[in-house]
Fold this protein.
Amino acid sequence: MSAHYFISAYATSPSSDKWCPEDESRYFHGLANKPEVVGIEHPFLPQSDKYPLPWLLENIPENWSLIITALPEFMNLLKGNPYFGLASVVEKDRMAAVKIMEDISDYIRKLNRGFGRKIVKAVHFHSLPRNVVNEMRGSKQALKQSLREIKDFNWDGAELNLEHCDAYIPNQIADKGFLLLEDEIEVISTVGGYGIVLNWARSAIEGRSVKKPLSHIEMVKNAGLFNGFFFSGCTDDVNSNYGYWRDTHMPPRNFINGDYLQSDGLLGIDEVKQTMQELNNYDEDIYLGIKVSDLAADDNIDKKIGLNTETIDALNYFIL
């Protein structure tokens, strides 16, 4: 497996509160200095002034590709409507989510035209809405209908990948609470034309175990749907700023003596090693990514760059 990574750059953006093109340019240039970085996971933010196309054209290196993620926009809309999502059992809310996916397909074609190449490698979408006790707001039947409709849009060559998030589990407080991986696999296997991307933390949060990502990898491998894997950490420490079993993109444990990684957290040396071994045992080509965040409310751009590059150094320790 090659040591190439997509970075969820927006998670450590120095412009998280207010768009600052100068700071963001310095941040992107710092990431681009890391040769293992082959692109970014880029959010679809239709109502934001962040990442205008002229700025992207000036700051995306020629060797980078983009993965478009729907999650920030979908989670924002979910705040105002708990039934919104591609798997919604409420038809109007399911259709509204499908419309956002159509808008994303338009955005992908706009990016490809602007760059003069098919810069968008893939799109990540998710099985919202959140299910809760006594109210199953999402279903695999609704997701199946959405995916059948989405296939008809013009994706201009981009892969369509469902990114699994922690599922609703009875008697457990979920972070996301979307559909089970088993249901997502069943739907995608039936509809065809889609793949699945896993995230270490989201699987660990669902299973309350560092072993759950390994079992999820095996499930998706066996289904023949494995297209990508993102490394992001979490913790079971109730006193951690990153939160107890929360999907807050905690960096790995600092087993490489870096300047910016965490001293605690569950994604440690053994977990990285075991995961890399599982990924290396897969014959098909998948893309790798990292998603880490900086909880400090400061403008330390060197730290924001370092959190990403040191995470790559930690992962590269076990590339075979």
About this structure: The chain has one domain: 5-316. The longest helix spans residues 91-115.
